[in-house]
Records
---
Amino acid sequence: MRKLILAGLLAAVVPGAAQADRQPPKRLLAMSPDAFQAATTLQDDPLEYHATLSTRKAHREGWGLFRLDGHDNHLRATVDKRTGATKYEVRTKVRYYGTQRAYRSAHFVTPAGLQAAPLTLQLDAQDPCATNDNNNNFNCALTKTIAFELDEAAVRAIAAQYQTDRQQTWAFKLKDENGADIRTAIVPAEAAGLLRAVDDYRASRPVQVAAPGGHHNMSLMTVTDGG
């Protein structure tokens, strides 16, 4: 209770702090594609048709009591082990103060120009104070996980922006229906590292090919860079 009261007071002292743009931490800006590839985790259950690779481990989530908001972004790839086709997502965990927000889409730029993508995930956490309705108007800390998809060509275009002598970012905006948009970013090295991990996985794993009777034969997975 004391933490909720203090958090509410802090939010009142710093109005609009939750609207501030956040750039990736300097630690992430300094990481190479090799470092992101090494930090990429793989979930590959032999009894599932899909394997999941994620760069989340490369991020150190943690917002202190005096940090009023946070955007923790990472990339995720889901590989269909039957075909090698891969789905890519940008995932963001957001913390903010106030009432529940409703995000609907993501805006970002690709070589084809400005794009808008619908959200594929919008999951509210089980926060101690889910709304403002019954808490004497204190602003509670709320967390939400949001995701949207990118095609492989877009991910490779982001990765191609990586330069060893420059700290660049790829920006995107999460659109809230009431104007509480979030502008944040990932680093090209992260996209490059995930792609390397995906390419290595797809090159080394067999494809599960359906056979008569519902059984599966195994054949070598050969997938081009375009997925």
---
Amino acid sequence: MNLYLHLTIKIINTMFGFALDTDNEPEIITLISDVKNIEGPSPIIYKKIRLISVNDISSLKSAIKNSSKTYENNGFIYLIDQQKNILSGTFISNIKIIKSRKNNIILSGFVWCHPKGYQKAWNMKFNDEIKEKNSWKNFEKNELQGWLVYTLRSGKFDSAQENINIQIDGNEFHNIDSFFCKLGEEINGTAGYFGRNFGALSDCLQGGFGVKSITELTWNNHQKSKKLFKTKFKTILNIFEEFNVKVSLK
């Protein structure tokens, strides 16, 4: 008797949708398989974006052409799941069609960008690749802010922990962004968020991000972090001190 083993690998990717900015509930005009060059180093930047495999390209082109008369030619490229629920959106103003070929389009406009790595994190999420802590270690240094924004957008902060004690290890992160990646997971679990810069850390310590109060932070191998972070190390300590968090340096 021959035995056959059938393996099915299911890859679930995110999709995109385009909608005009109408100040009403978003109405998705068409679905898009992939979008290139939508991330950027600056919050707002003029750039060209490539839309790949647009489902209804004629409706998209017509909507953009007519929108300048009513909506000032602004719109959103939404990240959506398989059920077409909107997960997040990227706002684009002054949209123009630069090139159209078959079912692909190149647009230009002022883009309110997410940081590089944001889409990569969502793809990992939908491919079920974020199962345990430290998934962020698969990201390049310049992609870590994208990971941090993903954890903020995808995080659920229903429960509020009180008087918790946490530990971090200076051997497990090597720059400020990876410090925030590690801190977020030690406080809020896998893919957890607890700030992505110093202002955001202060906001998190005021409550509303899964924690009401932290009693003590134990910082193992802190000397390595102190050497790497320089003056920023003292800034971190000052923020915790401001919110009555005891920091034990080991």
---
Amino acid sequence: MISDRVTGALVIRAALPAEAETIADLHFRARSTYYPDGVPQGDMDWAEAWRGSIARPDAHVLCAVAQGRIIGIASFRTDEGAPADTVRLFQFHVDPDRWRAGIGRALHAACVEEWQADGKRTATLDVHVDNLRAQAFYARLGWVPDPENPPEEGDHHLYLRYAVAGRADRAADGVADRTADTAGE
């Protein structure tokens, strides 16, 4: 499990059950930016869903916190039926008021660190087709279209894949740790 990760004034840590309402609010505000006709209404209780994700023993929910306020969230776990070395990034959101300040990049780096520690080799996610900003962000970080999940006609999501390099792989490739890079999300 990830220990608190400090990057400047930003702390990335595991979410607490008591933070589910705050996380659900950030999730809603971030989703509101990429639905052209507004976030679809539904009967989903997102705070309860986040409480469930936080409580799952096989899942991780990370929070990026600055000045005592949650400004980024990520949720991931191995999907049921997926290979044990594959992780799925279910949710990844940064407070829209804090975009382009390096928070997304730092939160992603913390996710990758956890995936490496957990022995994951591949990460997958789906991103809404109207969320061009997120698609560009993921592309900058090395996510590519998932050849095993091409979008079908009428799909509202694109499926992406990320090769999780192990620590030894990163050292061999000479890849620098980008957690301090604040030029990204």
---
Amino acid sequence: MPHRPHQKKTSRSIIFLTDNEKGARLLVDALIQEDFTVRLHPKKEEHLDGRAPDNTDLLIIDSSKFSLEELSTYPRIRSVYTGLLMLLIDNIDEMLQVLLYEQGVDDLLVKPINHLLMLARIRALLHRGYQRITPANLLFNRLEINSGLRRASYLGEELPFTSREFDLLWYLAKNACTTLDRDHPYKSVFGIEYNGYDRSIDMYIARIRSKMAPYHNLAPMIKTVRGSGYLFAAEH
């Protein structure tokens, strides 16, 4: 029987924007060692428009001197880039972290960063995307959620969910009419154990609700069950 050469799995693609290429080199090298394809670029204004290629799995923005002016760029990034977005940042208070999550950042690491921790967080971010096997489609009150296309639309109009928001919406929708505590989405969507005090799920839920709010039939779909968790309360 003729030998069939082993086909190497396609590496995952990362764009790494930084204002300190020398300081970022160790992190970039660690990613390359893990078989990621990494494109390192200087973080300039023209690179902060979110126009990452369609085959980009993750956009990492490394900021040494973060400013409120830079914060204002994230809605623009999110208007054109719906993939995963990670931010590496120096000295940042909790309120600014909350604002960054609300502006569309999927994960945030405060420097100095242990490269093993960074790799673990990246694997957790990518976990959900690479676990998708069979495309599926759900329909609730004329809200169509297609996991194969990773698209949610209402009456044919697409809702602009980010990658992480869509993952969470899909998880809630496929468990419709079931109250889910925080442990479940952390394990299934984030790929990590809930630590008992993190509130990033709440921020993502708030962002999903804000994008559904303009549509009368969608606004009440995701309910907070006090002391228990969240409920996707919609009938097929």
